[in-house]
Amino acid sequence: MTSHQTAQTMKPATAAKKLGVYLQATPADFQEGAVSRAELSALQTNPPTWLEELRRNGPHPRPVVAEKLGVSIAGLARGGVTEPLTTEQIEALKQDSPEWLQKERATQAEVRKEGARIKKRNAERAAQADDRS
Asked: Rounded to an integer, what distance in angstroms lies between the CA atom of residue 3 and that of residue 60?
């Protein structure tokens, strides 16, 4: 008795998310079919021209836009950015540096600072607990 192993596949939206690209900007054949793990791996290691172009110029999905601007996804929404942006649009926002972007960047910096403080505190507590053992 032999078992046939089927290749695991994912929806195009999942694959696009893992690749960090906006699904609606991908080629039609990518959007319409399932993507196997092997195909995803091949796209990551040897990206085709369309994927390199999307990563370079966009349009970029909100998580990528948020990362490039140094804010959270919620911060984008608070700033009124709900649509995917191109690299050019992101750079223009950085240059204009609207008040909402400055505020959200400051908020994100505080969140990161607090996260680092908590991580350090937890590490110190763990070290103290190990010392007592």
From this structure: 41
